[in-house]
Each structure stands twice: as C-alpha cells, then as structure tokens.
Amino acid sequence: MSTENNKQEFTITVYTENQIGLLNRIAIIFSRRKINIESLNVSPSEIEHIHRFNIVIHETEDVVRKLGRQIEKQIEVLKVYYNTNEDIIWQEMALYKVPTEEIAEKVLVERLLREHGARVVVIRKDYTVFETTGHREETDKLIEVLQPHGLIEFVRSARVAIIKDSEGFNAKLREFEREEPGQDVIENEYLDKGQKVFTM
Amino acid sequence: MDTAQETIQKPEAKAETKTFVEVTGSVALLEGLIAEGTDVIFGYPGGAIMPIYDALYDYKEKLNHILVRHEQGGIHAGQGYARSSGKVGVVFATSGPGATNLVTGLADAQIDSTPLVCITGQVFAHLLGTDAFQETDVINITTPVTKWNYQVTDAKEIPSVLAKAFYIARTGRPGPVLIDITKNAQMQLFNYEGYIPCNHIRSYRPKPIIRNEYIVEAAKLINSAKKPFILFGQGVLLGKAEEEFQAFVEKSGIPAAWTILGAGAIPTDHELNVGMLGMHGNYGPNVLTNECDVLIAIGMRFDDRVTGRLDKYAKQAKLVHLDIDPAEIDKNVKATVPVWGDCKDTLPLLTELVDEKKHTEWLAKFREYTKAEVDAVIEAELNPTGDELTMGEVINQLNILTKGEAIIVTDVGQHQMVACRYAKFNNTRSNVTSGGLGTMGFGLPAAIGAKYGAPDKTVVAVIGDGGFQMTLQELGTIMQFGADVKIMILNNRFLGMVRQWQELFNEKRYSFVDITSPDFVKLADSYYIAAKRVSDRDDLVSSLVEMLNYKGSYLLEVMVTKENNVFPMVPQGCSVSEIRLK
C-alpha cells in the first residue's frame, strides 16, 4: 500500500498557554515538513488562560504521531491529542449573504434554506445573512444551491471538534500544576494502547 | 478575613516587608546572571543593547565579558564553553545584524542540544514594527532554532523570564534559549525583589516519569540477547551519567560504539569501547549493526549520518531506546522497548536487572573487523610511508603527547572525521565538535569558549584551512583576552571533504574546492600569536611539543597531503553494511 493511500484526515487538538508567538512555533512544525494545514482554529478553552487549537491535516498516522510529539515538545504546549474523523464530533460554521429580494420573491429559495437548516442572522433591505453549521460537504452543498440565486458572499470557519471519549482537561491541568505530576500525565502510547483516547 | 485577624497581622506584615531596591532592567539582568552562576559572557555591544553594556561597566569584577570579533564567534564560544564545562553558555548581542549573526550558532546549539542563554537588545517597544534602525523580527527569525524564546518589553519581567530561560536551557534535553529585550525595558527602573530561580513550568516536563514496566522489559530483552550492541550518544554526557553508563556497560559486558558527540562518555581505550559509528566511523560497529540481535541506543537520535540507508538499518535487531526526549522515540528507527527518561536515572535501574556477562565471542568479532580496518586503512593513515604528512599521523602524535587528556575542538570536514576517529579521550567533555549542523567556522571560537569552560585543560583546536578562514577574526579575541588555545591548522589546500566526494562520486570534477590561504604564520604574527609552519615528518613531533609547551596561545600550520580520503566510508544512500574501506 502506498503512503498516499494511508493518508486520511486527522484532527489534532492542542492545549496551550496563551502566549504570543506560540502560533508560529506550532505552525512551522508543519511548514518545515511541507505539510499543509487544512483548517486551523485557536480559541480560549473552558479553562481560563488555556487555549485550544484544532488543526486539521491530511496525513498518515505515522506522520501525525511524530508531529504531535514535536508539538508537545514546545515549552508552552500542555497536551496534544490526535483523532480520526470517527473519534470526534465536529462542525464548521458558514455564513451566506444573499440578496433579500431573491428570498422575498422566490419561495423556492426560502425552502432551500430551511431544508439546509440555515438560520437568519441579519435581514436588511438589500441583503440577508444566513448561517449554517455542519460538515464541509453540507456547507458546500448550500453554496451550490445558492449560487444560481445570486449568492453575494460566503465565509466558513475552521473546524471545531470535540473528542468523543475525552473527559476534558480540568483534571489533567491540576496534575500539570503539581511539581511532581502523577503517572497518568506521562502517557505512553505503548501502555495506553488499550485506552480509547489516544494521547501522546 | 475578619477584622480582628487583620489588625493582628498588619504590624507583622510590616516587619516582613520585602526589602527591594529600585534598579534598571539591565542591572536586574546582570544580578540574575550572577545568581545563575554565570562567570563568562561572550558578547558584542551595539546601539540597542547599550544600557546593558553600561550596567556591565560596574560589574567588571563579577562578570568576565569577552569581547568577540563577530557575534557568530560569540555564540560558538558560548557553545564551546557549555560543552567543556557542562554549564549554560551566555551570549550578548545587539539587535538587527547582531542578532541575525547568532542564527547559525543557535541552529548548531539546537541540533546538538547545547544549553545557551542568548540576550539580544531590541529597539524601543514603541518602535517595534516600524522598520526602525537595526530592527529585525528576532523572535520569529529564531523560533525554529531555539528551544524557547521570549521578548521582554517591561523590566519587571526580566528576573522571572531569565530564571525561566536558564531552567529551560539546562533541563530536559538542553538547548538554546533567546531573550530579546527592548531598550526601554533595559533602562526602566523598577522595584527589584531579588532573583528566584525557576524549577517548575506547568506546561514543560523536562523529565518523563520512568515506567518500571519498560525497564523490566528492556532488561529481559537484553538478557536474552546473544549479540547485543550498545550505541551511545551525547545524552550520556548531557545527563552527566558517565559513571552510570560505564557501570552498565561493564556489568552487561556489551560492546559499545559512539556517535561523534558521544565520544569520551567512556574512555577511548576501554575494552568494551569498540569505536565510532556512522559514515566515517569504524568498520566493525557499522557492519555489525546489521548483525546484532538487540540494539541498545542510549541518548542518541539515529542521525542519517549514523544510520546510512534507513530501510536497510538493523532490520534484524530489536531496539531498546533510552532517551529523555519522547519525540526521539520511533522518529527514525522503531523501538521495541522505549525507555523514556533521564539516563542518569534509567541506567542504574537497568544495570540492576541485567545479567553479568562477557560476550567474548561476539566481542572477538569486533576485534576481527578492527584488525581488517587497521590493515586496510589505519596503518597507512597513522604510519604513512609517503613523504607527505597525513592528518591521521598528526592526530596520532598529538595523542602520544597529550596522553588523551586534552580537549580536542574540531571544525568541520575531513580533519574533523580524522580527529574524531583517531583522537584519544580519557575524559568526558573532551570532544567539542559541530555534529548535527556541520558548521564550518565553529572550531576556533568554540575552542576559545572551551578554554574558559575548562581553564585547567589543554585545549587543542584542530581546524582545516577552509573552516579556519570562516571565523579567523577570532584570533583578535585571543590576542586581546589571551585564551590559551593551541590552534592546529591541517592544511591540505583543498576543501577536502567536498573534494573527496567529487573524486568518488563526480568523476573528479573538482568544482570550486581548490582554496588558497593567506600565510597563516604571518597572520598569527600580526595578531601577536606565536606560530610556526611544519611540513616535514622529522619536525612534526618537535613542533607539536613546542606548541603544547608554549605559554599562551600558539598556531601550528601543518601541511598535509593534498588528496587523501577519509575511510572507511558509508556512501550516502548505502546501508551501513556496505561500508567501503577504499
């Protein structure tokens, strides 16, 4: 089997300190290896001062594991997880700007929007902004549908993903804050193979 | 808190009021360096670091600042200091070109895990991003080549950031750290409450917790091995685990070979030290890598110069990999049993569980290969019959005179491989060379630093005629500050290693490897450094004796044969078992 065939979509979740320059430190781990980041989301996590990255790449698991270790090696990185699409619940949000008159005049358009679960965000005389969330294919589909009806502008967010088997990060963080963390902090893939959540 | 308690506590709190003094950021920096035990700084002033240099004027007694001739020289000196002393090297440079001149040294220190704290000046915070005079984006330029870096714009941050920098530089897998301090922060007065060393960062775990299961598994594997083989690298030195390592080797009786940065972890003459690994390493260790049944890799990272062609590397063997850096496990070669941890801690645990053995037959195999290598390569190199001197015989004579007690600093190229192959090291931290990055020009400044790091040792810099010309301005540093460094230029009038490749793989198409040199003796003379040129065998030993006995620095230019090749050699893209003897 060629390596190309072993490639699949992976979502890398990174918990970090909120530090200037860390985004670059993480980004160059990919660019140095000529790996494209398909989607990147960085935002504050549920814990104060801790940020969460979601990075989507198309690679083999072997490469992703190595990338994960290089990321976790950075001083301000607390923890790295990586998951295939089966392991996560993920969404992307999309905004569509459509001429208001199109919607007002054509019942069909309104029905299409409703079928795709789009929600109105803003209505103005000249245009209306709709929002949907879903997987890439779903938001793509709606672009296709709206294109003939004068879609003015479109934007999509990066992927945000929840790991199905994760128990969150609060407990882990407490371990990190201890000067001598417990053994479960130092995970080891060889021993943790049995666990559902893969950690570095 | 109730009021009663508050009133009781108040006077006490007043009595305990921390005594602080108002100081500038620059003074806080220098106080911090002293608190960290810094005794030498290699640096070069400039506009954006002037407040720190102004403060340094009053610290001349406590901090020995060596004015180098180029910032690259400064950082290589810092590396040499760190490598010979085991302490953190400290380097100062100004903003812009001063900082960018550090980049080669940072990359070198990063790949060779050398602990450094570099301080760069930066333009005023309000000028950041305005393309101010001598402004460069130092943080982003140095991000890929530092273990950590940080820009300080407020003096109050200086003590804690410096403490963090030292902690990060020297713990775990060591590496270079850079702190960029804007000029306003250097000048800013603030209430300095003293220096508190750092010993914990919640997002940084320098030492993985050792899992005993793996120690047990590793010992089981090692005890069951018929033909076990140890590969050791600089991790043993960085972990200051030389004794623990020797105990492990001696109890298990397993032959051990070194990467060039691992040289000296056990003495060259130790009966279980079977030689050097890699492209120009010894015959036996390379060939037998592909015959052993269990490989025990300790503090080494399977560089491509060590492994040769990876898909034909030790495929028959099971691998026990001891490393402090989890990212090294499985990076190049898959481990059967990974032993994450500081080898200073893991080696004694492993030694406890391994059987006491003597692998006599297996060791004899290494000896057979050594004999073949002596006959085919070493004898002709060390005892040549031709008129011209060889690099190998020069190193051999040096060994005889220094008895393996000297620190040998090398530059990069043929002379480096010859020096590493033939130099004798009785002690740890005696081989200072640019391993991973292969930085020509490293040798002279690193030797200066190595001397400051180990003032009681004889420091011999072995440098080629090409590399010497890359950083020879540091002769000025020697002239001014008097570092007693013995400089030995092995001059073959060629960029020898590239010429060797062109001879072997490019049909002798010698493309720009013919390099001319100035009169090195006159050059040294103009720097008031004693110097001599030698080209006759009859004068070699007396010249070396004169160099070694000379009080102060000395430059000896040794004219060696022009077109010698370094063998054995694992050609690029070949397996270690395809090593060539000629």
From TrEMBL, chain A:
Location of the ACT domain: 11-85
Known catalytic reactions: 2 pyruvate + H(+) = (2S)-2-acetolactate + CO2
PROSITE patterns: ACT
Key words of the record: Amino-acid biosynthesis, Branched-chain amino acid biosynthesis, Transferase
Pfam families: ACT_AHAS_ss (PF22629), ALS_ss_C (PF10369)
Pathway as given in its UniProt record: Amino-acid biosynthesis; L-isoleucine biosynthesis; L-isoleucine from 2-oxobutanoate: step 1/4; Amino-acid biosynthesis; L-valine biosynthesis; L-valine from pyruvate: step 1/4
GO MF entry, a single one: acetolactate synthase regulator activity
Superkingdom in the source lineage: Bacteria
One Gene Ontology CC term in the entry: cytosol
Quaternary structure, from the entry: Dimer of large and small chains.
Matching NCBIfam families: acolac_sm
Name of the molecule in the record: Acetolactate synthase small subunit
Organism expressing this protein natively: Pedobacter frigiditerrae
Organism lineage string: Bacteria, Pseudomonadati, Bacteroidota, Sphingobacteriia, Sphingobacteriales
Gene: ilvN
TrEMBL record, chain B:
GO BP annotations, alphabetical order: isoleucine biosynthetic process; L-valine biosynthetic process
Keyword terms: Amino-acid biosynthesis, Branched-chain amino acid biosynthesis, Magnesium, Metal-binding, Thiamine pyrophosphate, Transferase
Cofactor(s) named in the record: thiamine diphosphate; Mg(2+)
Keyword Acyltransferase: no
Residue intervals of the Thiamine pyrophosphate enzyme TPP-binding domain: 411-558
Group of enzyme by EC: transferase
Recorded catalytic activity of this chain's protein: 2 pyruvate + H(+) = (2S)-2-acetolactate + CO2
Annotated EC: 2.2.1.6
Ranges for domain Thiamine pyrophosphate enzyme N-terminal TPP-binding: 24-139
Every Thiamine pyrophosphate enzyme central domain range: 217-348
InterPro entries: Acetolactate_synth_lsu, AHAS_TPP, DHS-like_NAD/FAD-binding_dom, THDP-binding, Thiamin_PyroP_enz_cen_dom, Thiamin_PyroP_enz_TPP-bd_dom, TPP-bd_CS, TPP_enz
Cofactor note: Binds 1 thiamine pyrophosphate per subunit. Binds 1 Mg(2+) ion per subunit.
Any GO MF annotation of the entry: magnesium ion binding
Lineage: superkingdom: Bacteria
Metabolic or biological pathway: Amino-acid biosynthesis; L-valine biosynthesis; L-valine from pyruvate: step 1/4; Amino-acid biosynthesis; L-isoleucine biosynthesis; L-isoleucine from 2-oxobutanoate: step 1/4
Gene Ontology terms: cellular component: acetolactate synthase complex
PROSITE patterns for this protein: TPP_ENZYMES
Family stated for the protein in its record: Belongs to the TPP enzyme family.
Record-given protein name: Acetolactate synthase
Native source organism of the sequence: Pedobacter frigiditerrae
